[in-house]
C-alpha cells in the first residue's frame, strides 16, 4: 500500500453564487476579471492534490471562481501512482493501486468533468519502498523504458501530464543503485520526447531527484513546466536553475491542517513576490469554499463558489463607436449539450435569448442611446437544467464622441 497518508500527516506538522441583482450592482465599479483574463497568465496557478485512496477526484469540479465559469483549480493531481521494482527483471515499473485504477477507469465521471471546466489533470507518481525511483536510472535506455509507461498512461486515460514526487523510494533496497546526478535528466528528456510540448511535467521539490540532479550541467529544467514546495504550511521557494518565478510555487497548504490566516498570508506573499503557483492538498468531500475563498480572493480577486451551476459557454464582448455613441456587441458561444436561456444586462440595456443549443453562437447588440453610459461591465445570466449561472464580464470602453 502507498505511504501517501502517513507522509501527508508528517508534512502537515511542518459562497454562494451572486444573484443577477448583485452582479449588476457591481457594474458601476471596475468590472471583475472575465474568462478572457485567464488567458493573460497573470494569476498564480492553483494546484490541488487529491488523495484518491480516500476521496473522489470529481470533488475538484465542485469549485468555481464566483461570477465566472472558471475553475478554482488549474491543475488537479491524482495522488498517487507508484514507481515499483520488478526484482526478476531488474526494472522499474508503473503501478496503480485499486483506487487509482478505479479513478482512471472511471475517467468519464472522475476526470472529464474537470477537464471540460478547464482544469488540467495530472497523474502524480510516488516511490513505494522498493528501491525504484526517479533518481537512480543508470542509463538513458532504462529511463526511457519507464517513460514509455508514463506516456502510455497519459495517452490511455486522456491525462494532461505527469507529476513527480520522490519520497519513499528507499534507494538501495532490492540491490537497486543509489541516486545519481543525471538520472532524472534522462527521465525528463525521454518523457518530454514522448509527451510533446503540450503536456505538463511537474515536480515536488523533495528527495534525491530534487537535491542531487545536476540541473545546470544537464539542462533538465528545460523539460519541467512547474516546480513547487512540498512542505504544507510553509514558504519554501524552489531552487531550480533554468526556471523562472512564474514556474515556481513557494506556498503550500493543507486544506484540513493549515490555518486559514496562514493560507491567506501565503497567498498574499505569492502575489507580492510574483510566484506563479499556489499549492493545496487534501481536498475532501466537505465544503471547503469559505477557506478557499480567502485564498482565491487574494490570488484572483474572486471568491470561491461551491457546487454552483456550470455550463460550457464562452462569453466575449467588443465595444466600438457608432457615431458618437458606444455600441456593445456581446457574443455567446455554447458548447453545452443542454438548451440554455441567456439574459445579457448592461448599463446600455438588456436582452434575452432563448433555446441556445450546443454549437450555437448568438450575438446581443446594445447601443448607448439617450442617457445611457457605457461603464465597461455587463452581467450574463445563463439558465439551464442545473440552475442559473451568473457571470460578470468586462469590456474596454472606447472614447466615442470625446
CATH class of the largest domain: Alpha Beta
Identify low-pLDDT runs. Answer: 1-40
- Briefly note the structural class of the backbone: alpha/beta
Question: Which second-level CATH architecture of the largest domain applies?
Answer: Alpha-Beta Barrel
Mean pLDDT: 90
Q: Give the biggest sheet.
A: 11 strands, mixed
CATH superfamily grouping of the largest domain: Glycosidases
**Oligomer kind:** single chain
Fold and architecture overview:
The chain folds into two domains: 283 residues, TIM Barrel (Alpha-Beta Barrel); 82 residues, Immunoglobulins (Immunoglobulin-like, Sandwich). Helices cover 24% and strands 30% of the residues. The protein has eleven helices and 20 strands. Strands 1, 3, 4, 5, 6, 7, 8, 9, 10, 11 and 12 form an eleven-stranded mixed β-sheet that branches. A four-stranded antiparallel β-sheet has the order 17-16-19-20. It is elongated and about 80 Å long.
Summarize this, please?
This protein has 402 residues and is an alpha/beta fold. It has 11 helices and 20 strands.
Key features?
402 residues; alpha/beta; TIM Barrel; Immunoglobulin-like; 2 domains; eleven-stranded mixed sheet; four-stranded antiparallel sheet; 11 helices; 20 strands
Strands, helices and their partners?
Blueprint: H1 4-13, H2 20-25, E1 45-51, E2 63-65, E3 75-86, E4 91-95, H3 98-105, H4 107-110, H5 112-116, E5 120-127, H6 140-157, E6 161-165, H7 183-195, E7 200-204, H8 207-211, H9 215-218, E8 226-228, E9 234-235, E10 248-249, E11 251-254, H10 260-272, E12 277-281, H11 289-300, E13 304-306, E14 313-322, E15 325-334, E16 340-346, E17 349-356, E18 361-367, E19 377-384, E20 387-394
Parallel strand pairs: 1-3, 1-12, 3-5, 5-6, 6-7, 7-8, 8-10, 11-12
Antiparallel strand pairs: 2-13, 3-4, 9-11, 14-15, 15-18, 16-17, 16-19, 19-20
Amino acid at each position: 500500500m502507498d505511504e501517501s497518508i502517513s507522509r501527508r500527516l508528517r508534512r502537515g506538522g511542518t459562497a454562494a453564487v451572486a444573484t443577477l441583482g448583485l452582479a449588476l450592482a457591481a457594474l458601476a465599479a471596475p468590472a471583475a476579471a472575465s474568462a478572457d483574463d485567464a488567458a493573460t497568465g497573470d494569476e498564480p496557478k492553483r494546484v490541488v492534490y487529491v488523495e484518491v485512496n480516500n476521496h473522489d477526484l470529481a470533488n475538484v469540479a465542485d469549485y468555481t471562481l464566483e461570477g465566472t465559469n472558471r475553475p478554482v483549480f488549474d491543475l488537479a493531481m491524482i495522488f498517487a501512482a507508484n514507481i515499483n521494482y520488478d526484482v526478476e527483471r531488474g526494472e522499474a515499473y508503473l503501478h496503480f493501486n485499486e483506487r487509482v485504477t478505479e479513478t482512471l477507469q472511471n475517467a468519464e465521471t472522475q476526470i472529464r468533468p474537470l477537464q471540460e471546466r478547464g482544469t488540467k489533470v495530472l497523474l502524480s507518481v510516488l516511490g513505494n519502498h522498493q528501491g525504484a525511483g526517479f533518481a537512480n536510472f543508470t542509463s538513458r535506455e532504462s529511463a526511457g523504458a519507464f517513460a514509455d509507461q508514463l506516456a502510455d498512461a497519459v495517452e490511455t486515460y486522456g491525462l494532461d501530464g505527469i507529476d513527480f514526487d520522490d519520497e519513499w523510494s528507499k534507494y538501495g533496497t532490492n540491490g537497486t543503485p543509489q541516486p545519481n546526478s543525471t538520472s532524472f535528466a534522462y527521465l525528463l528528456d525521454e518523457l518530454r520526447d514522448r509527451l510533446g510540448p503540450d503536456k505538463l511535467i511537474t515536480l515536488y521539490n523533495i528527495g534525491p531527484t530534487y537535491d542531487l540532479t545536476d540541473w545546470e550541467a544537464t539542462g533538465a529544467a528545460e523539460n519541467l513546466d512547474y516546480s513547487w514546495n512540498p512542505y504544507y504550511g510553509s514558504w519554501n521557494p524552489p531552487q531550480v536553475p533554468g526556471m523562472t518565478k512564474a514556474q515556481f510555487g513557494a506556498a503550500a497548504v493543507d486544506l484540513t491542517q493549515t490555518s486559514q490566516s496562514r493560507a491567506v498570508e501565503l497567498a498574499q506573499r505569492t502575489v507580492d513576490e510574483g510566484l506563479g503557483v499556489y499549492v493545496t492538498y487534501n481536498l475532501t468531500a466537505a465544503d471547503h469554499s469559505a477557506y478557499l475563498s480567502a485564498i482565491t480572493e487574494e490570488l484572483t480577486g474572486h471568491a470561491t463558489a461551491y457546487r454552483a451551476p456550470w455550463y460550457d459557454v464562452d462569453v466575449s464582448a467588443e465595444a466600438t463607436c457608432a457615431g458618437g455613441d458606444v455600441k456593445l456587441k456581446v457574443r455567446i458561444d455554447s458548447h453545452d449539450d443542454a438548451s440554455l436561456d441567456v439574459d445579457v444586462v448592461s448599463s446600455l440595456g438588456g436582452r434575452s435569448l432563448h433555446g441556445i443549443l450546443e454549437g450555437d453562437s448568438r450575438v446581443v447588440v446594445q447601443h448607448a442611446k439617450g442617457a445611457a453610459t457605457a461603464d465597461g461591465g455587463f452581467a450574463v445570466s445563463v439558465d439551464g437544467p442545473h440552475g442559473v449561472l451568473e457571470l460578470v464580464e468586462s469590456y474596454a470602453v472606447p472614447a466615442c464622441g470625446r
